[in-house]
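Teaching assistant's notes for section 4

Start the section by putting this record on the projector. Ask students to predict, before seeing the second block, whether MFS transporter will look compact or extended. Collect guesses on the board.
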Amino acid sequence: MSLNSTISQLRELLKIRCFNLGVTMKKLSLKTSFGFAIGDIGGNLYFSLVGFIFLFYLTDELGLSGALAGTAMMIGKIWDAISDPIVSSLSDRCKSKFGRRRPFIFWGALLLFTLLVITFSLPKFSSKVTTFIVYTIMFSLLNTSFTLVNIPYSSLQPELTDDYNETTKLTGLRMFFAIIGTLLAVLGRPIAEYFGTDNRGWTYMAVILGLIMLISSWITVFTVEESKIAKKKQKSVFLSFKEALINKEFIFALIPWVLFVTAVTVIQTSFLYYFKYIYNKEGLFELSLFGLIIVSLLSLPLWVIIAKRIDKGPSYILGMSIFSIGLILIYFLSPYSSPYTSVIIISFSGIGFSTHYIMPNAIIPDIIELDYIRSGIRREGVYYSIWNFLLKLGQALAGLVIGLTLDIVGFIPPVNGSKQIVLQSKNTLDGIAFLCGPIPVFLLIIGILVLRKYPISINYYNMIKNEKY
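Reveal the predicted structure now:
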């Protein structure tokens, strides 16, 4: 399937069929649909860039131990998680003439670009303690600026359409651009190496990718017109969060999502160590990710069709099961095969991994819409802040687990960012392989079992809507 064919199918899927519920829904224009979807290039670019290289940057470029690097990331993610409810509450209650969401996206994207360039332009410090403190602070500030963009951006989607299948189609288009963002993140380290092995290369990388984040976010700001929400007295922040956290539909989607994200974070961070130290072929990291992401991209239209046939929850379960099988194969076959076998297996695992892009982002708008039907209050920010809060705690835990595991198994980081590969012990190599197989697979299996309890289907969704209208 060619890229043009994929885009064509996604555009075709944008045709809207509204339920006859006595209300008239505004048909999404291509300008609105593409303008919104393009915004996720920047969001996923930042998210993936941090997952792919930041821990590696701290250990192999700056010389921090695995424990210190993991702790720095954990602190940054915990602070990021704390800021989510604050931003969501401010966004839900914003009364700007430009809308509730767009002012945050505009200024947050500008701040994110600025801080990204500063972070990757800092000089190397002789003291490891100073390095740890400075990069912990910068990572926390980076994540806060990302929250200013991501929470309001995510909250826009439920305001664009409330149609069950249309949500999946719009999410498919959004995830098409999200995967492009991930592909761009794969280029982060090669860009830095192209412009030089010193800090200058990382600065150029930050400027180039930061500008892409900024421009994609601003495209959303200037092309998407926010819906006018009927004024209704808001419940207290505490009560809104309490009601969201006792919403069983939300909980049975939230727990698997957090487990899946934690597993994926462990995988995407560990694979760079995997190819560098087990195979001594660092460049295959980008090749494997490229294969995974391209296959995921080409699989998006397939999963949109499958979700329409068997529904979103079962599709997500099927996809993550396929992905888990791929990881198991890599762990057991890699000691007896060439590194290119791992690249091929990782690539084809993208068929299942594709659901991790589309399904959760198609599921949560349904939950939010049903909450609105029942309560009469739009609380997108509340739901997305909890969603992202626990996502980031999962990422924080993943970073700490990786860092501590590397220290426990005796990982030796390069001295002063040396490019020479340090010879690691067999115990260390086994630990790195364990991070790429059994640990994430265990998390994926638990998530799949919980996701089986997720209750919303198209019939369930339409029944609630019909009862209301």
